[in-house]
Amino acid sequence: MAFQWQDFPLALLIGVGATAVMDAWLVLLQRLGVPTLNFAFIGRWVGHLLRGQFAHAAIAKASPIQGEQAWGWLTHYAVGVGFATVLVAIQGADWVRSPTLLPALALGIGTVAAPLLVMQPAMGAGFAASRTPTPLKNCLRSLANHTVFGFGLYLSALAIALISR
Questions:
Q1: pLDDT value, residue 1
Q2: Half-sphere exposure of residue 159: CA atoms within 13 angstroms, side-chain side
Q3: What is the C-alpha separation between 111 and 44, in angstroms, rounded?
Q4: Hey, is 98 helix, strand or coil?
Q5: Among residues 16, 4, 159, 155, which one has the least CA distance to residue 84?
Q6: Using CA atoms, how far apart are residues 94 and 102, in angstroms rounded to an integer?
Q7: Please, are residues 7 and 1 in contact by the beta-carbon 8 Å criterion?
Q8: Cα–Cα distance between 42 and 69 in angstroms, integer?
Q9: How many CB atoms lie within 10 A of CB 27?
Q10: pLDDT tens, position by position, 88-140
Q11: Beta-carbon count within 10 A of 99 CB
Q12: Closest Cα partner for 111 from 153, 72, 73?
């Protein structure tokens, strides 16, 4: 099914909601003492990307970028909205009116490919965090985070459906 631009406001709301659910999860993990992503590093990576540099040996050692924290959060939410747009494009507006868990969860879990295969290698952590001290733990943590994002996609769509009735 082709994406209908009139569905973009729904995708925007779903993406922001799902990303906020993931962020609430990350805050909970932080409070439990579990290390989570530093969004400034995403902003730093994006800032360097806009200047032509895709890969880094270690993003933490790369030159800081002005406003990198804001760039990181903006990117985080833009990517969440992008993934939600894919979900709405695949499932259609009918799914938003009557959402089911499986498509949202499947897409959420599938989004783990982005950090494992693109972001981590580009930031110097290697494919699937292979250059980190605990690659399996980091991969499982990413999988859990993106599974929560999938639940957030469903919960956000469900909230929209309930409000729209």
A1: 58
A2: 15
A3: 21
A4: coil
A5: 16
A6: 15
A7: no
A8: 8
A9: 11
A10: 999 998 999 999 999 999 999 999 999 999 999 999 999 999 999 999 999 99
A11: 23
A12: 153
Q: Residue 139: which region, alpha, beta or left (left: phi > 0; alpha: psi -120 to 50)? A: alpha
Q: Is 97:162 a contact under the CB 8 Å cutoff?
A: no
| Vertex 44 angle, CA 41 and 45, to 5° | 90
Q: How far apart are CA 112 and CA 26, in angstroms?
A: 15
Contact 43, 68 (CB under 8 A): yes
Q: Quick one: tokens of 48? A: 């360097």
φ, ψ of residue 97 to 5 degrees: the values are: -70, -25
Q: What percent of the chain has pLDDT over 90?
A: 94
**C-alpha–C-alpha distance, residues 29 and 145, integer Å:** 10
- Read off the pTM: 0.95
Q: Where are the alpha helices (DSSP H) in the chain?
A: 8-31, 39-50, 68-91, 93-97, 101-110, 113-114, 120-122, 135-164
